[in-house]
Design brief:
about 375 residues; mainly alpha; four-stranded mixed beta sheet; 18 helices; 6 strands; about 60% helix
Length: about 375
Amino acid sequence: MTSGSGHGTDGADSVDGDPGDATSAAASAAPPDRRRVPLPGISSRAWEHPADRGALTALRELRGFDDLLRTLSGVWNERAFRLEMLGGAVRVDHRQYARVYRIFAEAGAVLDVAMLPELYVNFDRNIQSLCVGMSKPFIVISSGAVELLDEAELRTLLGHELGHLRSGHAVYRTMLDTVVRWGTTFAWVPLGAVVLRTVAAAMHEWWRKAELSADRAGLLASQDPAAALRLSMKSAGGGDLSEVDTTAFLEQAAEYDRGGDLRDSVLKLRRLLWRTHPLPVARAAELRRWVDTGDYATILGGTYPRRADDAEASPSADAKAAADHYRAAFRSTEDPLASLLRRLGEGGAGAGEWASSGFGKLRDWMGGPSADRDRPASDDAPANT
């Protein structure tokens, strides 16, 4: 999660570099402050938000485009930014920021990250973090995060970035940035600009859901819901929580969802449309809802998707889960505009397909295959083991 929310941005899937094995590093570290359940073999599907996973399924059908983006990022952006961090930040290991490295290794061990990426601390008084790169990704956190967060909160933050990494978000965040630039370049072409803006809006919606996925990964890494809530509170209001009440903070999320009248609904839409990150109160409430569904406890109990079964996961089931999520959100929200549409009987049928439509336009535009081609509509959902 990055600017606007106080966490990091891009993530990637495979890691090729030092500094080493998460499990062995955690084993040699000081005893943790509380017992955490390891999650061996866990797939990123365990924490991915349904809308995030459905969008990733559509984007992964653009065969060849992600490889091109990886290549270009590795040659230019990734290499340049890593050199900037190498020359202007502190690389974390057992000699530098040893406490942070221990927490990082513990988070990686819980999420079964075989090789930790490089971790840097740069000077920034705000709570910030990001995961960048595709061929050799690395994580950067701010000095403010180190100073303002306790160990459980910092473990949650680092787990969040490892979640981005394991889900392979960096490739598609690069795609989002590319589409936004194209939208500016081709703004003079009426039809092309409309299509690109539609795609860009859908991809911003996906990235907001990707942040919710990473929030879940962060919670699984720390296994401390109170710490995850404190992280959102500190991201919103700074490091001093002595005069902040958790119940009141969550009440803000409910009040924000209800809004006031239709004017507030329109203002919220305009404010959110081009944001890559959900607002802190909304993130806290969404993570609390995930815990309340029982999915979090089920994972800690040992029932979760495994990486070994990823190849058997059903793309059509992922797309259906995404559509179901949007339909359920449309039915349950107290937003005045959504309530009006429900009363008028409009919008319900298409609410589940709003975000995925933009990805469909991009897939068709790039010549990608249909999500349903060669796959029966009744494919089984990914099985938990």
